[in-house]
Specification:
homodimer; alpha+beta; 35% strand; globular
Chain lengths: 156, 156
């Protein structure tokens, strides 16, 4: 399995934290996702198309999402609402947009973000499409960057 | 607002019900989504890119998702698991794939589906990106097709 595409998304996530939130983040240990093990409260998801196809998600516990949007907007956000969904959507959009610059070989296009809100939801990929989970550790708390990409190398 | 792109997705959803599930479905009254009003248990989402960008969702109450996957697989499915997420992902993939044939002017590409599972989750678009909700009424029960598409006509 070629997972060279993962690092650009990790780098882009760390850079986005720095530039947009003024927060230092670190990537934890990557793992191949077992869908039954991960649940979140707020998830920004964006589709990827091109020579490879898939999606990335930024998935947060509610309190970490509030802190991220508070840092993004520079004003306290403590309730679910448009500020949170717009803020998390903007973050996943920037992460995907930056990452595709490092992945020109796949000629990626990105869809518009959607933001899922719901206590303890999970997000599955189709069977056979591997999802890599990267925990991102920061002063906001921990959240997850998940990347699923079907590259030409693994297409049947 | 140009919403001529909505009908191909409605037609494709009805056709997919017929062809894949052998179920007759009808579209209810379209509405512009107010994100606070809609929550679901299982949602298949797929990104769209091209001359327009956005996403479509098929969103189900849990029991309707089970019935849809039961009809798709021809075997009873009564618990959440890979059958359900793979089945709902396959349906949204087919709906998007069929619809794009009717929308050649946008030269759409579709990402891989993701499937959200979680009681009473909601799915928001960014502010400023209208989402059209189409209730689909069938013998399975009612579910929703939601389409968000930013077309060149409405791009700033």
């Amino acid at each position: 399995m070629d997972v060279s595409y993962v690092n650009p998304f990790v780098v882009s996530t760390i850079e986005t934290l720095q530039k947009m939130l003024n927060i230092e983040g670190k990537a934890g240990k990557l793992s191949l996702k077992d869908s039954s093990l991960h649940s979140y409260d707020v998830t920004g998801v964006i589709g990827l198309t091109g020579e490879a196809a898939g999606s990335i998600c930024l998935s947060f516990p509610q309190e970490v999402a509030f802190k991220a949007v508070t840092a993004l907007l520079g004003m306290p956000v403590t309730m679910m609402g448009d500020e949170v969904t717009d803020g998390i959507g903007e973050l996943v959009n920037i992460v995907a947009g930056n990452a595709k610059q490092y992945l020109t070989k796949y000629n990626l296009s990105i869809s518009l973000p959607k933001v899922v809100v719901g206590r303890n939801h999970s997000v599955a990929s189709m069977s056979g499409v591997p999802t890599i989970v990267v925990p991102i550790v920061s002063s906001l708390g921990e959240f997850a960057m998940e990347i699923s990409l079907k590259t030409p190398e693994v297409k049947k």
